[in-house]
Amino acid sequence: MRGVIFLGDRQAQVRDYPDPQPGPGEVTVQLKAAGLCGSDLHLYRQTVSERAGNATIPGHEPCGVVAALGPGVTHIQIGDRVSIYHYRGCGHCRHCLAGDLMWCPERRGYGGPIHGANADYILTDARNCCPLPGELSFGAGAMMACNAGTAFSSITKLKLSGADTVAIFGQGPVGLAATLFARAMGARVVVVEPVALRRDLALSLGAAAAIDPAQDAVAAIRELTHGEGADASFETSGSAAGQNGAVDALRLGGRAVFVGLGAQDKTLNPSQFIGRQLTLMGSFVLPIHLYWDMMKFVLDHRVPLDAIVTHRFSIERAPEAFALFDSGQTGKVLFEWS
Ligand SMILES: [Zn+2]
Ligand SMILES: [Zn+2]
Fold first, then answer.
1. What is the tens place of the pLDDT at every residue in 65-80?
2. Closest ligand relative to 288 C-alpha
3. How far is the CA of 114 from the centre of ligand 1 (A)?
């Protein structure tokens, strides 16, 4: 099969890999769509010496059809459409049993220690295969594996309603999916995003306002909220400015959730949230059982996840796809197979 390799210094290449064979409890899935995610770029940007010849196939947003079953797999069939949850766990620790595979001490992430989704086939555990209904595209299924799943898990922590104004910092794929979910939950959405293409995309998805952080984003949000500040905020950018903005733009008693990684400096001071009694939360991917809630929400509220996709590539064009996504001048970018 074909698979992508990162050579280091922003070089991607397509190579031949052996086809994976499923062992007990495992399946192979023929990819139909795979998303490019911001966290893939951390690997893409490593230097040649940091990569050190690492030939692990990247990509952790897999979606496709089951191609082969390992011994003992009976609950899914060849040909089933599946979105693949993106950490493989041991299956028996307290975190796996609770659905929090991302906390399993033996967790393995695609593109980390094990081969990922930027290939013709992927090997996974049968229990990681989440059913994708026929009404949803393979692209939507790929996004629900990480990008939209991360957005859904985060935004549900804010318990939004139609009475809320939510400020979303960053309109990369996670921020864009969050804009869709927050709108479908009834909230008024204000986004902060430096890239004009992404601001325009957010407005087309229903955001009430899109602020360029070259201006004072906190002041702009206060102006849009009668001087009080947003009821809730969601930080996806990982930048120090975004992290401070997501706190400082809140009203008294407001709530924020943080998902963007990046800023390594200590950016927040408790004096920013003590007196104003803010609630600040972290969020990390999603527990596997939340996939079913998200799937129902996307179907019932007709959430147009495909609308955040701006570019689609065959895997042969991986070098071009990663270079473009790395430029930041895109919405969601997908690999697709016919
Ligand atoms: Zn991801
Ligand atoms: Zn486990």
1. 999 999 999 999 999 9
2. 2
3. 15
Weakly modelled stretches of the chain, pLDDT under 50:
none
pLDDT score recorded for residue 261? 86
Q: Which ligand is nearest to the CA of 125?
A: 2
CA of 239 to the centre of ligand 1 (A): 17
What fold is seen in the domain 149-282? Rossmann fold (3.40.50)
Instruction: Provide CATH 3.40.50.720 ranges for the chain.
Output: 149-282
Predicted TM-score (pTM) of this structure: 0.96
Residue 268 alpha carbon to ligand 1 centre in Å: 25
152 CA to middle of ligand 1, Å? 13
Query: pLDDT of 76-131, one tens digit each?
Result: 999 999 999 989 999 999 999 999 999 999 999 999 899 999 999 999 999 999 99
> What's residue 235's pLDDT?
98
Q: Which fold has domain 2-146+287-336?
A: Quinone Oxidoreductase; Chain A, domain 1 (3.90.180)
CA of 108 to the centre of ligand 2 (A): 10
Residue 158: closest CA among 169, 166, 150? 166
Distance 286 CA to ligand 2 centre (A): 15
pLDDT of residue 265: 76
Tell how far the Cα of 78 is from the centroid of ligand 1, in angstroms. 26
CA of 150 to the centre of ligand 1 (A): 8
CA of 97 to the centre of ligand 2 (A): 7
Q: Which residues have CB atoms below 5 A from the ion given as ligand 2?
A: 89-90, 93, 96, 104
Tell me what pLDDT residue 178 has: 98
Q: Relative to the alpha carbon of 259, which ligand is closest? A: 1
